[in-house]
Task: structure prediction
Amino acid sequence: MRFSGWRVLREGLTGNKGWKPHWRDPEPKSEYDVVIIGGGGHGLATAYYLAKEHGITNVAVLEKGYLGGGNVGRNTTIVRANYYLPGNSEFYSHSLKLWEGMEQDLNYNAMMSQRGIINLFHNDGQRDAAVRRGNAIINQGDDAELLSREQVRKLAPFLNFENNRFPIMGGLMQRRAGTARHDAVAWGYARGAGMRGVDLIQNCEVTGIDVEGGKVVGVQTVRGPIRAKKVALAAAGRSGQVAAMAGLTLPIESHVLQAFVSEGLKPIVDHVITFAEGHLYISQSDKGGLVFGSYLDFYSSYAARGNLPMVEHTMETFVAMVPAVSKARLLRSWGGIMDMTPDGSPIIDHSPIDGLYLNCGWCYGGFKATPGSGSVYAHLIATDRPHGAATKFKLDRFRSGVGLMDEEGTGAQHNLH
Result:
């Protein structure tokens, strides 16, 4: 079933009776070539690219809940490729290019909106860092533009430019960045993978990983054992727990990151804007709600809810940045579980167990990485060689100390990235 303007018109005129489920609901088979643990954005994208790019379709994606119900549906929907360090820079550049063609590739409307992102700076040191970052982005082949205070004021006049403590001196803009509807991304990849023969199995929690003679041979699930030649982890904030089923200890801590949505307002925020001093980021949805978030809750947890002190901090920062919305009402909030590595950069690599692959440690960057992660992870699983855009995401860097990518220069502490 393909979507088109004519199809939407025809269905609208005939009572919408021709639509069909976007993916099958199969029973799990006893054996697959590849089992992917985790039916979020990364797991579904990996299944899609395994089928599309490598012709591997005997694949099962095992999701303990429902598709799109995890972190892929619990974030602030930001898409960007404005990283500084080699490793992250080429990967997120690869991912942004895939974002730009994703809807046409999937024939699915994910509401991709390249509205641009502006990272504000507030002192001379931050301005110098923005210049270096902008040059690195341009050298990678992506776009970056340094804005003066007046240029920012013209684009975002609602910001508090008279804040005595954090004066806005300018911003670094990437016009190709933007937002996408998060759960639609999951649905689009699920539909694309399902159409190519991948089994998407919901309500199928993995309870064990079977290893014989140093090689993975399958998984145990609440719906019975499933044998597999290869098993790929894509469990986001639960990566540490799932890896422990195979006896692995990952260099990951899981922390809660909260996000918020205001009541619907008239259009005010055209871009994605980040406020460096408070680590606040904000955009406005198509329905008018202001979507925003700030820091982690700063303690390890698997709870998909946050603490009140961080709610207070986020609201304080939000009002300091945009005083005009101080009387807007908060509509809802949620917490996502972030898999934080010591250097703030992800892991896409073989594990020490033959046939078991790792995709984890995405920290704040999981959603924007979705198509890139699926692309390079599928390449690794299919060929047993790292993709050219992900050669530095090695697990071993945390043992040897070689190749660490501390993007924010905050040192080896998980919750500071």
Notes: The radius of gyration is 21 Å. The mean pLDDT is 94. The longest helix spans residues 88-106. The longest strand covers residues 290-300.
